[in-house]
Amino acid sequence: MGALDEGHFCAELENGVGLGCPELGFEEEPETIAIEDAVKVLLHGLGEDVNREGLVKTPLRVAKALREGTRGYKQRVKDIVQGALFPEAGLDNAVGQAGGSGGLVVVRELDLFSYCESCLLPFQVKCHVGYVPSGQRVLGLSKLSRVADVFAKRLQEPKRLADEVCMALHHGIKPAGVAVLLQCLHIHFPNLESVFLKPNHKGWLKSLVCSGSGVFENENAESWTDFLSLLKCRGTNVDRTSTRHSNEQSWCPSQSYSCAKTSSKIEPVNQAMVTGVTSILRSLGEDPLRKELLGTPARFVKWLMNFQNTNLERKLNGFAFSRVNAVETDKEASGKEKQIQSELELPFWSQCEHHLLPFHGVVHIGYMGAEGLDPIGKSLLQSVVHFYGFKLQVQERITRQIAETVTSFLGGDVIVVVEADHTCMISRGIEKVGSSTATIAVLGRYATDSVARAMFLQNLPRPTACEE
Predict the structure, then answer these.
(1) What pLDDT is attached to residue 204?
(2) Same domain (yes/no): 342, 399
(3) Percent of the chain with pLDDT over 90
(4) Do 242 and 94 sit in the same domain of this protein?
(5) Confidence band of 198 (pLDDT split at 50, 70, 90)
(6) What is the rounded average pLDDT of the residues 329-353?
(7) What is the pLDDT, as a whole number, of residue 135?
């Protein structure tokens, strides 16, 4: 199950972690204030105005998101398990197993979210838990999810998360054995330089880890076969051999970046920003000197600087365009019938300015072009998308900005649809798994011609299975 300190979990079950100062309101608590101050330092480092309307409440929003996302430090496993154990008779001295005490109990597809300890980005977890009750004692099913969530709501990495959930349940229920299997997805942001070099960049990295105790301690035990078979009943096919490889290498892309040479130019890290992130770690109840966290502040700052506010001119990928180009195109197309043309599924990555959490997705652009004229190059439109994506953003704004910009060289008839997944929708309080957001901007003919608008929207690609 992993080299964990058993005494640590016994203490966790009995005592938990201190609950802070309940007499203070959330906004008045020292931890909240410290995080807000640190976020202001980060925003200054990005060249942003903390008094800008969209950013005024960002420090408090970030503080709420981070403290909510790490609330597991102040929760006690004992409070969850105690009072939720119920007597249930089962076979004690007979051959085989029966329901209740002695039979395998599995809870599948628990959606959890955690913050990666290496880069402070949230990652998504599909958790499957099973245990074999003993001593005529079973646990309320909802408590399996709640115990798993306690450890997910801490700075984590997949293998340790699986081990901590497994051992906590083993000590809390005292079963014949516990099995935990996690399917983890870590958002994989390219940096501003590499995004042009790797157009097929994948947005997620996967990791599969497991942990077992008692009858599940041996990874080749028949109990694991039973557990995995019950997962397959719901269409969850797991290749157990891949779990061995997941543990041998760092799964966090930020550490892969630090090992790979992506640029000959090495930018110095803003030390004030690093100090700010260190303060955030301390305010969340973590020890910034813990070996797994030593490089985390610098990695987070390096990633965040991808969204630095710079006073760039509107020159995209070596091209500069103005309304004159559109006028010349209109002259050339005079007398020719215009047809709907499009560039679909242009990927983008961005950072929500309200919570400093990433969002990403695809952009679809439609325009009216005359038959026989060369279509606008996809690389140029992709450059426009990246230009506005790599900033602190909101989806509504980036949709409008792309539409207004591409009219300068596509003419006035433009439609833009942005589809995105927001980590703030799944990693914070509402935790709406599978939710996505679509925004639309229409200019010129697309704003008045419902038929043309409908034709474009009907041709948008349908989603395929997630990250196959």
Answers:
(1) 78
(2) yes
(3) 51
(4) yes
(5) low
(6) 77
(7) 82
CA triple 269-271-273, angle to 5 deg: 95
Output the six-digit token pair for 454.
């409908």
Does 12 map to a domain? no
Residues 62 and 166 in one domain: no
CATH number of the domain at 326, please.
3.30.1130.10
Q: What pTM did the predictor assign?
A: 0.82
Co-location of 358 and 300 in the same domain: no
Determine the pLDDT at residue 244: 44
Tens of pLDDT along 257-288? 554 444 445 567 899 999 999 999 999 999 99
The number of domains in the chain is 3
Same domain? 181 vs 100: yes
Q: Domain containing 141: what range?
A: 1-6+84-248
- Per-residue confidence (pLDDT) for residue 377, from 0 to 100: 74
For the chain, the three-class secondary structure string (H helix, E strand, C coil) is CCCCCHHHHHHHHHCCCCCCCCCCCHHHCHHHHHHHHHHHHHHHHCCCCCCCHHHCCHHHHHHHHHHHHCHHHHCCHHHHHCCCEEECCCCCCCCCCCCCCCCCEEEEEEEEEEEECCCCCEEEEEEEEEEECECCEEECHHHHHHHHHHHHCCEECHHHHHHHHHHHHHHHHCCCEEEEEEEEEEECCCCCCHHHCCCCCCCEEEEEEEEEEECCCCCCCHHHHHHHHHHHCCCCCCCCHHHHHHCCCCCCHHHHHHHCCCCCCCCCCCHHHHHHHHHHHHHCCCCCCCHHHCCHHHHHHHHHHHHCCCCCCCEECCEECCHHHHHHHHHHCCCCCEEEEEEEEEEEEEEECCCCCEEEEEEEEEEEEECCCCCCCHHHHHHHHHHHHCCEECHHHHHHHHHHHHHHHHCCCEEEEEEEEEHHHHCCCCCCCCCCEEEEEEECHHHHCHHHHHHHHHCCCCCCCCCC
- Among the residue ranges 213-227, 253-267, 399-413, 448-462, the one predicted with the least confidence is 253-267
Please check whether residues 112 and 237 belong to one and the same domain.
yes
Do the strands 338-352 and 392-393 form a parallel or antiparallel pair, or are they unpaired?
parallel
